[in-house]
Amino acid sequence: MTDIAAVRPATSTVQQWWVLTVRVIKPTLRNGEFGTQVAAPIMFTVNFYLPLKQFMGAFTQGTSSYAQYLMPLIALVAISFAAISAALRSATDSVQGIDRRFKASPIAPLTPLAARMSASMYRCCIALVVSLACGYVIGFRFYGHVAHTVGFLLLVLLIGAVLALLGDLIGAANKNPEATTPLLLPPIFVLGLLSAGLEPVERFPSWIRGFVRNQPVSQYVYALRALAGDSTPAAGAVSWSVISPPLIWLTAGAVIVLPLHVLVSTRRR
Amino acid sequence: MSVASEDKTTVARGAFGDVRRAASGDATESSARRLVPHTSILTARLLRRWGRDPATVLESLAMPVALLVTVNIVLGNGISQLTGHSALYGSVPLIAMVGAMSGSMVGGIGLMRERTDGLLSRLWVLPVHRASGLLSRLAADAVRIVGTTAVIMCAGLVLGFRFRQGILASVAWLFVPIAFGVAFTMAVVTLALYTANTIVVEASEIVWGVLMFFCTGFVPTHEYPRWLQPIVQHQPISYVVEAMRGLSLGGPVLAPVVAMLLWSAGIAAACAIPMAIGYRKASMRG
Fold first, then answer.
1. What is the pTM of this model?
2. Is A189 part of any domain?
3. How many domains does chain B have?
4. So what's the ipTM on this one?
């Protein structure tokens, strides 16, 4: 008799990754996730731009239009919703026992995570495209160098990747798909509104300005605004002092979340 | 008639005859006398269930309070400078309605889950008043809305919201959100009964999102583009906000209350019959 290990089939990690990625992406067209991805940036743009255009427009420090001012936050909100979907997916997978099944199968330990992350990047791309379309409709334009425009797109996707990783961790740790959205929406709302994305820091009450200026969303907004450029010099120049804080936040986020994710996903039940 | 023979009829009735009569004495389960206790039991069941579900508590209490504090920090100063009054007189009622409407969605999804789990069909074959299933949902929602409003009111009081129109108006203020809140719940429940996919019910978030941001409680009417102003002024949440503003800060009360009641009655009238039919269908399938 041959050893039982000998009949174990040859597996290809790339093929497994692809199959698992398609597994996550395919249902999004039917279960409404794609609709959420498209609707969220549109709703955010309509709900904030129309009421606040006149109200905030007067205080936006010489930016050519409120659309130019609001665009970074539109993109960030869009990718936050992609991260919520990632958390929902990861929570559903852990609660239904799919993760456990994967652990018992001849799959490399990181392949399911890699597949979920690929699906997250697909969501982020949709979010980015839809939010840019929304921005263009209300009057946003790229004024900067091509390299800066590419930098804008890459930075949004990079933020999306780290947020998705965080969402995946929260979903896997929480194991409650129904509580995911109510759990994640308030922090997104609070951090998004209490940032320099909606109005300048100077317009906030003085006691909270320090938080508003230094919290990651504001730092992302500053960098994205500079990368997008403007017809007036108000957007700020692209420099290391603008670009490095977001990168430091993102690196720190990844460095903290990755080991936690390994810890949560290798935990035995 | 001897005691023994009466005993025998009861036994016979209990074993083969009309079981429902024996269980509930004189009143059958479809009598009006049974409706109140049945509804209150089912209402208590729903409220207890929501209280134990972290998603519902977060969605209907923590999120609105966080939203109120944030909106007040972001827009409060600007609006106060613009209107001369604290922005809280508009934002506290606005956020109370947001809490009411987002809670309706959680209730709608709960109803869909109970349909899938077979609880609705189970209740349908038990001697329970037919109307109590739906009425209890609306009653539980009314209680939830008052509770949410009270919590948001407390958060508002901490931030600087004050009642200026006396005790009667203040008590009335607390109950204003019920009318439109329950009407909105009826719409969500109707939607939930006719769809299989929870995403459709979750899409009702878009409805309350739009109602929230295009409302006189968010920023003053004249800040909106001119073509939007009539819509903003006459949508139901603006009427609720204006009525509650009148009851706390001062101003017209009667006109917005009448308009709000008309909106609520309109939605309730449009939903009542489809909702009843949908509930019957949902209870009888499977």
1. 0.83
2. yes
3. 1
4. 0.78
